[in-house]
From TrEMBL:
Ranges where the Core-binding (CB) domain occurs: 6-87
A single MF term (Gene Ontology): DNA binding
Classification via Pfam families: Phage_int_SAM_4, Phage_integrase
GO biological process, alphabetically ordered: DNA integration; DNA recombination
Keywords: DNA integration, DNA recombination, DNA-binding, Plasmid
Residue ranges occupied by any Tyr recombinase domain in the UniProt entry: 104-283
UniProt name for this protein: Integrase
Family: Belongs to the 'phage' integrase family.
InterPro entries attached to this UniProt entry: CB, DNA_brk_join_enz, Integrase-like_cat_sf, Integrase_catalytic, Integrase_recombinase_N, Integrase_SAM-like_N, Tyrosine_recombinase_XerCD
């Protein structure tokens, strides 16, 4: 959490303590506080005085002012924590219902586009970090959290500590990716950027890791330099990793494990964007004689 210069109210302090007790991620805490702050601004009074009708009208207000489904649901999640955990009055949320999110297909790059993007990275650190995102299918947060000791060249794995859902897992490490990592390690070590047991991709200071924002900026800069006009970010490389494996006939359950997905249905979305699979299907019109 970013420290505030204003004194905290007892109510906010209690909510912060409740979140800290449960070891919620800083970004989650910020999102929950943001939701309660929105309610207080709407009510123009303390949020703990809200009634069931107040909350219902607040949700209508969010809809009428153009809040996206993602923003609306995130706000409701924060309010649910506040009223259930901090106040112990979950019954006030009875008429607050999350909205259904529209299902969208992920943006996927072709193998040729991935190759161009990686080659266009501004420096070797960014190039190798993006190679890890694509070559191992890691999330941006997982890439920047890697340490030198997480690279296991004997077992050809990358150890992902406390990924999404606070779970450890192993990701694949291909020979090409290992070679790129070794090239980066030699350069980073010679420049004094790589500390023993330190971050695999340090930021400006060796003691700090590369940030997610810096990594996404690197993707955007590389995509622009490569002439790729699709809307891409670091997660696009993870989507491309899964899609390309599926197109190479890798079992979807294996891809599920590599991605660290809890449910197979989450992984199955890539079947909708694996265009190579679609091209192999013989349509029912093909066997018919020409008109």
């Amino acid at each position: 959490m970013i420290p505030s210069t204003q004194p905290l109210s007892p109510l906010r302090r209690r909510m912060l303590d409740d979140m800290r007790m449960r070891k919620l991620e800083p970004r989650t805490q910020e999102a929950y506080i943001r939701g309660v702050r929105k309610l207080a601004a709407y009510l123009k009074r303390s949020p703990d005085t809200a009634t069931v009708e107040d909350l219902r009208n607040f949700q209508l207000h969010l809809v009428d002012t153009g809040s996206s489904p993602v923003t609306l649901n995130a706000t409701l999640t924060g309010l649910k924590f506040f009223f259930d955990i901090t106040l112990g009055r979950i019954e006030l949320m009875a008429k607050m219902q999350p909205v259904k999110l529209p299902r969208t297909l992920p943006v996927v790059l072709s193998c040729e586009e991935v190759s161009r993007l990686l080659a266009a990275a501004r420096n070797i650190k960014h190039q190798v970090a993006l190679s890890v995102a694509y070559g191992a299918g890691l999330r941006a947060s997982e890439v920047v959290s890697l340490k030198v000791t997480d690279v296991d060249s004997q077992r050809m794995t990358l150890r992902v500590e406390q990924g999404k859902g606070a779970k450890d897992r192993y990701a694949m490490l291909s020979p090409v990716l290992l070679q790129r990592l070794r090239t980066w390690w030699r350069l980073g070590h010679a420049q004094g950027k790589m500390l023993p047991g330190g971050w695999l991709f340090p930021g400006m200071a060796p003691m700090d890791p590369l940030s997610i924002r810096q990594l996404n900026r690197a993707v955007h800069a590389a995509a622009e330099a490569a002439g790729i006009h699709k809307r891409v970010n670091t997660h696009t490389l993870r989507h491309s990793f899964a899609t390309h494996l599926l197109e190479r006939k890798v079992d979807i359950r294996v891809i599920q494990v590599l991605l660290g997905h809890k449910k197979l249905e989450t992984t199955s979305i890539y079947a909708h964007v694996a265009t190579d699979l679609l091209r192999e299907v013989i349509g029912p019109l093909e066997p018919m004689p020409p008109a």
